[in-house]
Protein 1
Amino acid sequence: MNIFDYDKIEPWIPYLIGGIGVTLLIALVAAIIGIVLGVLLVVMHNNKILGKLSFAYIDIIRGTPLLLQLSIIYLAIPQLLREIFVYGLGYEANFALPALTAAFITFGLNSGAYLSEIIRSGINSVDQGEIEAARALGINKFHMYKDIILPIAFKNSFPALMNEFITLIKETSVVSVIGVADLFRRQQIVTSQTFRYFEALIIIGIIYYVIIKIFSYAGRKMEVMMRHG
C-alpha cells in the first residue's frame, strides 16, 4: 500500500491553488475596510461620547471569537431582520447575505478594531515638534492629520500593520465554515472526495507558508525603503 498516494490528489491541485485568489481577496478587502475603520475609530477617541462608543466597539470585537462574529453577520443578523419585517411590518423579506460579502464585512470590522490600536500607537509616536510646527504655520486640524500626522503614523507603525495583514491572511480560513471556497474550504472538498487528508493538508500548508513568506519579505523590503526614503 502506498502511504503517499499522490495519484489521487494530483488532479485536484489546480483546484486547491485556485483558492489563493479568494483567500487574498478577503484579506485585501478586509485590510482596506480595517484601515478606514481604524482611522475613524482613532478620530472618534477625541470626542467624549464617540470615544466611549469607540472603546466599547473595540472591547467587544477583541473580546469575542472571530467565528462568533462571522456567524452573527452571516446567520443571526439576516434572521433578525427577517423577523422584524415579518412581525413588525407584516410581510416577508429575504435578507440572505452572500457568504463572500459576509466574510468581507466580518473581517473588515474585526480588523478595524485591531488596526485602530496600531494606528493610535503610531499617532502617539509622532514627534510633538511636528504638530507644533504645523500649528505655528496655521495648518488646520484636517490637513494636519491628512498630510503630516497620519503619514508619519503609518510609517512608524508599518511593521505592526504588516504583521496584522499576515495574521489576517491566516485567519481567513475561518470562512470555510460558511462555504466560501477559500484555500481551506477547497481542501475540505478535496478530502471529502478523495479521503486523502495528509496530501491535501500538506499542499495547502505549503501554499499558506509560501504566501506568508512572500508578504513577509515584501514587507521587510518596503520597511527598509521607507526608512531610507
Protein 2
Amino acid sequence: MPEILAADIGATNSRFAHFRVEEGELILMDSVWLASQEVDSFAQLLAQLDASDMKLTPGESDAVSLALAGPVQDGVYCQPPHIAWDVDLERDGTLLGPGLKLLMNDFVAQAFASRTPVMAQAEQILPGQVDDTAALGVIGAGSNLGHAALLPDPRGGHVALASEGGHGAFAFQGEREFEYMAFLSNKVDEPYPTGDTVVSGRGLSLLHEFLTGDSLEPAQVARKLGEDSETLQWMARLYGRACRQWALQVVALGGLYIAGGLAARVPVLVRHPAFAAEFLRSASMERLLQQIPVFLNRDQNCGLWGAALAALERLKAG
C-alpha cells in the first residue's frame, strides 16, 4: 500500500497530510497544520513536521507531493511571493527521502482536487453539465487571485495547466468602475490594477473604502455585507467577471470550481444574483457559459487531496 505525504504550503499555513492508497483509492489517514511564518527555511518547516504528531515522515513515504502558493520553475524550484523562504528540490531533496518528489503550484493541486472524493461536498452555484472529456477550470480569491486548469490525459490521468493570471490587468467597464480603477491606481503600487488587487481580501477592503470612505480589514467588511450592501453587489459582480474570463479562456466545459479563502468565508459573494448575471453576460458566448456548471469548494484540505492525487497518478504511471 503506497504511502503519500502531501503538503499545501501557503503564506499563513502549511498543511501536511498522510494518505494511504488502498485498492487504487486515496485514504486520508492524518493531517497537521503548521505556521509558515514561524520558520526561516523549508528545512526548519520539515523539522517542525518531524516534531509534530504526524506519524508518516518524508523518508518513509513512497511519494512527497508539495503544493506551494507561487510559480514553480523547472518542476524543482518555487519562491512563494509572500513567504521569506523558498523550496528547491535539488537542494532540499535529501530531506524528503528516496521516494518520488513532486512540486506544483497550489492551484494546480486545487485542480487535481476537483477529481477527488472531496468534491462530493462542493456546492453547485450555477447549473450546467460536466463534460469529463473537456478542460475544467479552478479559480479562487484569498490573499491573491489564483487560477489553474486540468485537462484529461488520453492515458487515463490528467495534465495540469498552471497560471499566474492574477497578475494580469483587470477589466473595468463603465464610468463608475473607471473611477474605482483610478482610486486603486492611487492606492496600490502597480502599473495597473490586477486581479490580485481587485478580487482578493485586500480588494474587498479597498472596494468598501471606495464606496463608503471607511478603511476596514477584510473580516470587518465581511461582517457588514448585508443583502442590500453596495459593497456586496460590486464584489459579487467583479468576482463573477473574473470567473467568466477564466472559464472562457480555458473553455471550462468540465466545470468551473471556485476555491480559495474569500468565497469559503463569505459564500454570499458567489451566491448573490450579481455574480450569476455577470458570469453569464456575454454578447457572443452566453450559450457556452450556460453549459458550464459552477461549484463552490469550501474544504480547506482540498489542496492536500489534489497534491496526493497528482502523486498517485505519477506512481501509477511508473
